[in-house]
Amino acid sequence: MNQFKLPYHLIVEAGAFDHIPEKMDDAITGIEKKKMIFVTEENLKGIFEDRIKKICDQFHQSEEYLIQRADYDSAVALAKYITMNDIDLVIGFGGGTVLDLAKFASFVSKTVYISLPTTLSNDSLASPVAVLGSTGKARKSFKCTIPHAIMVDADVIKSAPVRQLLSGIGDTVSKYTALYDWKLAAKKDTERVDDFAYMMSRMAFDSICFFDGGHSEMTENELKTNSFIRLLTQALVMGGLAMEIAGNSRPSSGSEHLFCHALEENFSEEVSIPHGIAVAMGSYPAAIFQGRNHEKIKNVIKQYRIPVRPSDNKLSRDVFIAAWQSASASRADRYTILREADLSDERLGRLYDEMEAIF
C-alpha cells in the first residue's frame, strides 16, 4: 500500500495571509520564530509588494527569494540554498510555476512548506507533483510531497483575472476523462486503480459539475464569491490528495493531459494556452474517443463558459490534429484511449469543426 501524507491545514478565507503564524501555530509551535524563506517571482513582487511585506513581517527572520527560471536546475539550486542557510520554513507565493518550484525545493531539502496560491488555475497548490523545465522547451513531472499546509486568501484570488479561475475549473473538469483512462489501463493490466483515490478525484469533478445544479451559466461575479472560491479550492485539493494517495498522477491525468503536453512540448511557438484551459479543451474529444457521455462535458464547459474553442486560443486545425496524433508519445508509458482511438486527419478535422461550432 502506498504511504501518503495529509496537509496540517487547508484554510480558505478572506484575509488569510494576514494571520499565518496564528493559523499555523497549533501545527508548528513557534512558527513565527522559524527562519523563513519567501519564494516568489519579480512580476508578483511588483503586484503584491505591500502584501508580501506584511506576510514577511509576521516572522522574526525572513528573506525573499525571487526565482528567475522554472526549471529543474533552479529548483535544485534553491534546495541547496535552503540547506546551506539552515532555513526552517519555505513559503511559496504565486501561481503554478512558483508553487511547483518551491514545493520541489522544499521536498529535496526536507523543509516544511506552506503553499500560498495567488490563483486557482490548476492543482499545483496541493499536488504531489512538480512540473519543471528540463531540456530545451520540454517540461517534466517530478514526484514530491504535498504541502504541509495550504492557505488561500479569497481577497487575493478575487484580484486575479477570471480566466485563471476558469483554468482551475477546466483542470477539475478534465478528471472525467482521466478517471476513465485510469480504469481502461487497469483492464489492460498496466495499472492498478486505488478505489479511495478514484473516489476523491470523482468527488472533485462532481462538486464542480453539479454546482448550482448545472442549470445556468455562471457569471464572473458568481465565480468570485467566497463560497465558490472555497468550493474550487477544495476540488483542486481533493485532486491533489487523490494523486498523493494513488502515488502517481493517474487520478487527474489521462488522454486530455497528453494532448496538453503535446501542445506544450511540440507547438509552444504556435500556441500558448493555460494548462487548465488546454486540458478542458482536450476532455471533449477524449470523451468522444472513450464513447462516453460527452454532452456532460459540453454542458459543464458551457455552464462555466470555459474558453475552449480552438481558434479563440489561436489553435489551428493542423496543430490540433498534429497534437492529438503526437499525444501518446508525450507519455509513452501511459495507457489511454489514444492507443485505441481513430486519430485520422479526417476524424480529428471533424472534431475541430464541431468544437468551433458548439463552443
Q: What report would you give on this structure?
A:
The chain has 359 residues and is α/β, with parallel strands linked by helices. It has 2 domains: 9-159, 3-Layer(aba) Sandwich (Rossmann fold), CATH 3.40.50; 162-358, Up-down Bundle (Dehydroquinate synthase-like, alpha domain). The chain has 16 helices and 8 strands. Strands 1-8-5-4-2-3 form a 6-stranded parallel sheet. Strands 6-7 form a two-stranded antiparallel ribbon. The longest helix has 21 residues, at 226-246. The chain is globular and about 65 Å long.
Summarize the structure.
This protein is of the alpha/beta class and 359 residues long.
Secondary structure: elements and pairs:
Layout: E1 9-13, H1 20-24, E2 35-41, H2 42-47, H3 49-56, E3 61-67, H4 72-84, E4 89-94, H5 96-109, E5 112-117, E6 129-133, E7 139-143, E8 149-153, H6 154-159, H7 162-173, H8 175-187, H9 195-209, H10 220-223, H11 226-246, H12 255-266, H13 275-289, H14 294-304, H15 317-330, H16 345-358
Parallel strand pairs: 1-8, 2-3, 2-4, 4-5, 5-8
Antiparallel strand pairs: 6-7
Helix pairs in contact: 4-5, 7-11, 7-13, 7-14, 9-11, 12-13, 12-15, 13-14, 15-16
CATH class group of the largest domain: Mainly Alpha
- Secondary-structure element order, N to C: EHEHHEHEHEEEEHHHHHHHHHHH
The number of helical runs is: 16
The CATH architecture of the largest domain is: Up-down Bundle
Stretches where pLDDT falls below 50 for ≥5 residues? none
Largest sheet: number of strands, sense, barrel closure? 6 strands, parallel
Query: What proportion strand?
Result: 5-15%
What is the number of strand segments?
8
Q: Termini distance?
A: 43 Å
Instruction: Kindly name the structural category.
Output: alpha/beta
Biggest sheet strand order reads 1-8-5-4-2-3
Name of the CATH superfamily of the largest domain: Dehydroquinate synthase-like - alpha domain
Named CATH topology of the largest domain: Dehydroquinate synthase-like, alpha domain
Which word captures the global form? globular
Helix content: 40-55%
